[in-house]
């Protein structure tokens, strides 16, 4: 077991993983909606010689040219045309429907669309879950061009067709009259990375094989599944940093976690980061990067949020230290070599992947200017370290955690886990969440009976074979999802949305699993973990009416003063739905997708079950504006300026993890002309 906080390491060996995480699709619905099973350091850190300098907030012209707005993942715009005084006047400027949507009722798998709109080159670019790219006029939504990858509509590694959109690159020294001096990149589930001329939508013939890179050719286990490219590459200078997704919970041996450094012009692979040793690759897998990354070009570092090893809920095949798993790892951008790494979960048997890009920020703590990094986690922890060295900003302590009950064959347990002292956890994991009296009463004590049957001794209570299993809180989808933390550099305020979801997990020996398996859905139900002695079942803790057994709120928006680590304000975000009706907003909603903040003193966010988009006051948390979108906005918004007018853009695509409500809408708002 690793009991260290920080490691100075070189890459070892590896490749695989991801999936959205939960089964909230049925969280507030009356009945489960199961589909058939889906293939479903203490050590001296290397300090950079480069002096820490403030990260450029937004490139000139206020573009929003990446998944998190900027490479620092601050999701911040310096635009203030829309502000706290006038945001109530915001109106729909335009909307666009791609036509690429499926509810899963026909022959096509359901669609899951979490693409951040990218504004660059005076154009809005969108990639869809059916693997088409659209270039749209930023003022009107008029289509300028589209490109169809002709990709298979088969959900090869996921329970749904999905995409988180496109990436954009442009040359520092564009050659006049030549094509592909500006490129849009788009990946598919079958591991094809397309490079398109940003002006015309034509393939860039000099990139890889006529404009298409087959990333699956680098897969060490292609017979298991392709390395699905659901998250757009992270573009750093003239290099693409590319992770990939795969199947969770399916097998104990899986493709082993790799990240590729690729030449942005040619598609040539320049380096490979491998998170697992050669020996570990024979017995485990994944430990991949399936979400976005952030980078500090001044320091020459790219920051990887690294996932957990396989299988997810049993670790008897990987009892030695796996120091890069479930970590934030800083790589040299030019070589892919590890500069520093911090492991946030030792011997992860809870599927607590690090699932969002760390947010880079310059903060003032006790009078000292610190080049910081904030890593949000599924556990509801925010770990704050120096992004040059990986050293603590506020102390991060190793604390004893629950050990196993002796009933799980071959398992070992980490004696301690890292806990931040500041900021405080976003949700209380020290004891079982309180039972919601209303849900318990209407189910005649069903919730109380379930709580009595579930083992929980606080955070990191391990999975068991006994009773109904182990209460899992936070859930495997996470207290914070891939939207991550937004940051206002002027007030040094961090903003993050959370989900408060209770699940329970049980391990079944192979014979019992075969008898019990009744199918699985999107992040819930049964999963085989083939090759391990145990299959598993993961369920949301609800009563027979589908009501959550734990007390609301089910989601919150939280603002944190990053000079002190203290919470400035917090409150419920969004509204949940039950039987087609909105619940009181004081109950909040589970959230998928993150916030954006602006110099106008505003927070923009979708993320909730009720499919609304909202604006909040950054200073007070007061809701100032909302509008109804076609489906839940499970993507980060984009904020941009075009021809002197400020716009806020959302993709309303939905995700069946949240609820069975999907869409194909791009909706964009501005002040009246």
What would you note in describing this structure?
The chain has 673 residues and is mainly β. The chain has one domain (6-50, 62-670): 8 Propeller (Methanol Dehydrogenase, Chain A), CATH 2.140.10. It is 4% helix and 32% strand. It has 4 helices and 45 strands. The strands form 12 sheets. A 6-stranded mixed sheet has the order 27-28-31-34-33-32. A hairpin with a 2-residue loop joins strand 22 (359-365) and strand 23 (368-376). It is globular. The chain starts with 5 loop residues before the first strand and ends with a strand. Mean pLDDT is 89; it is low at 1-61.
Task: Indicate the topology.
Layout: E1 6-7, E2 76-77, E3 91-97, E4 111-113, E5 118-120, E6 123-127, E7 132-136, E8 143-148, E9 161-163, E10 167-170, E11 182-187, E12 192-197, E13 212-214, E14 234-236, E15 239-242, E16 258-263, E17 269-274, H1 278-281, E18 294-296, E19 301-305, E20 327-332, E21 338-343, E22 359-365, E23 368-376, E24 382-386, E25 396-400, E26 416-420, H2 437-442, H3 446-453, E27 454-455, E28 469-472, E29 486-488, E30 493-499, E31 503-509, H4 510-516, E32 520-521, E33 524-527, E34 534-540, E35 555-561, E36 566-572, E37 577-578, E38 581-582, E39 596-598, E40 602-605, E41 612-617, E42 623-628, E43 638-642, E44 645-652, E45 665-670
Parallel strand pairs: 2-39, 4-9, 27-28
Antiparallel strand pairs: 1-21, 3-45, 5-6, 6-7, 7-8, 10-11, 11-12, 12-13, 14-15, 15-16, 16-17, 18-19, 19-20, 20-21, 22-23, 23-24, 25-26, 28-31, 29-30, 30-35, 31-34, 32-33, 33-34, 35-36, 37-38, 39-40, 40-41, 41-42, 43-44, 44-45
């Amino acid at each position: 077991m690793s009991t260290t906080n920080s490691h100075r390491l070189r890459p070892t060996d590896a490749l695989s993983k991801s999936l959205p995480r939960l089964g909230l699709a049925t969280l507030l619905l009356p009945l489960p909606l199961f589909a058939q099973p889906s293939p479903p350091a203490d050590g001296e850190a290397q300090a950079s010689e480069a002096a820490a300098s403030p990260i450029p907030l937004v490139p000139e012209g206020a573009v929003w040219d990446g998944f998190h707005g900027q490479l620092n993942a601050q999701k911040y715009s310096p635009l203030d045309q829309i502000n706290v005084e006038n945001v109530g006047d915001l109106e729909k400027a335009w909307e666009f429907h791609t036509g690429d949507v499926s509810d899963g009722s026909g022959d096509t798998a359901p669609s899951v669309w979490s693409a951040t709109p990218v504004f660059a080159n005076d154009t809005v670019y969108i990639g869809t879950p059916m693997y088409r790219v659209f270039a749209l006029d930023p003022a009107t939504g008029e289509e300028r061009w589209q490109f169809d990858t002709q990709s298979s509509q088969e959900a090869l590694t996921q329970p749904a067709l999905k995409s988180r959109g496109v990436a954009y690159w442009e040359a520092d020294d564009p050659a006049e009259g030549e094509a592909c001096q500006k490129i849009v990149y788009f990946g598919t589930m079958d591991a094809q990375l397309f490079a398109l001329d940003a002006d015309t939508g034509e393939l860039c013939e000099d990139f890889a094989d006529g404009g298409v890179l087959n990333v699956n050719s680098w897969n060490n286990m292609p017979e298991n599944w392709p390395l699905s490219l659901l998250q757009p590459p992270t573009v750093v200078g003239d290099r693409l940093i590319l992770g990939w997704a795969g199947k969770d919970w399916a097998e104990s041996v899986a493709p082993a976690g790799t990240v590729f450094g690729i030449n942005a012009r040619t598609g040539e692979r320049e380096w490979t980061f491998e998170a697992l040793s050669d020996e570990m690759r024979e017995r485990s897998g994944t430990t991949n990067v399936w979400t976005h990354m952030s980078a500090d070009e001044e320091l020459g570092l790219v920051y990887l949020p690294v996932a957990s090893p396989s299988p997810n809920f049993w670790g008897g095949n990987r009892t030695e230290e796996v120091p890069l798993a479930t970590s934030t790892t800083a790589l040299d951008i030019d070589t892919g070599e590890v500069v520093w790494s911090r492991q946030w979960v030792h011997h992860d048997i809870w599927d607590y992947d690090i699932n969002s890009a760390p947010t880079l920020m310059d903060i003032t703590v006790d009078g000292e200017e610190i080049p910081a990094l904030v890593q949000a986690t599924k556990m509801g922890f925010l770990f704050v370290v120096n992004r040059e060295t990986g050293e603590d900003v506020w102390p991060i302590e190793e604390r004893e955690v629950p050990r196993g009950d002796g009933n799980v064959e071959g398992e070992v347990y980490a004696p301690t886990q890292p806990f931040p002292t500041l900021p405080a956890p976003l949700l209380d994991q020290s004891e079982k969440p309180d039972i919601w009296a209303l849900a318990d009463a209407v189910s005649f004590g069903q919730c109380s009976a379930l709580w009595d049957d579930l083992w929980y001794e606080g955070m990191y209570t391990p999975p068991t074979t006994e009773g109904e299993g182990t209460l899992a809180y936070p859930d495997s989808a996470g207290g914070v999802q891939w939207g991550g933390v937004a940051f206002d550099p002027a007030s040094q305020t961090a903003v993050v949305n959370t989900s408060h979801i209770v699940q329970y997990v049980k391990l079944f020996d192979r014979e019992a699993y075969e008898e019990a398996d009744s199918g699985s859905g999107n992040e819930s139900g049964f999963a085989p973990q083939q090759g391990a002695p145990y299959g598993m079942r993961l369920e949301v803790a609800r009563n027979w009416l589908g009501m959550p057994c734990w007390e609301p709120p089910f989601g919150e928006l939280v603002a944190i003063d990053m000079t002190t680590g203290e919470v400035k304000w917090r409150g419920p975000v969004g509204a949940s739905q039950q039987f087609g009706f909105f619940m009181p907003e004081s109950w909040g909603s589970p959230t998928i997708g993150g916030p954006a903040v602006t110099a106008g003193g505003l927070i923009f966010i979708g993320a909730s079950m009720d499919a609304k988009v909202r604006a909040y006051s950054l200073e007070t948390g007061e809701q100032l504006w909302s509008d109804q979108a076609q489906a839940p906005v499970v993507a980060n918004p984009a904020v941009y300026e075009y021809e002197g007018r400020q716009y806020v853009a959302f993709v309303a695509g939905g995700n069946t993890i949240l609820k069975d409500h999907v869409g194909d809408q791009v909706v964009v708002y501005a002040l009246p002309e």
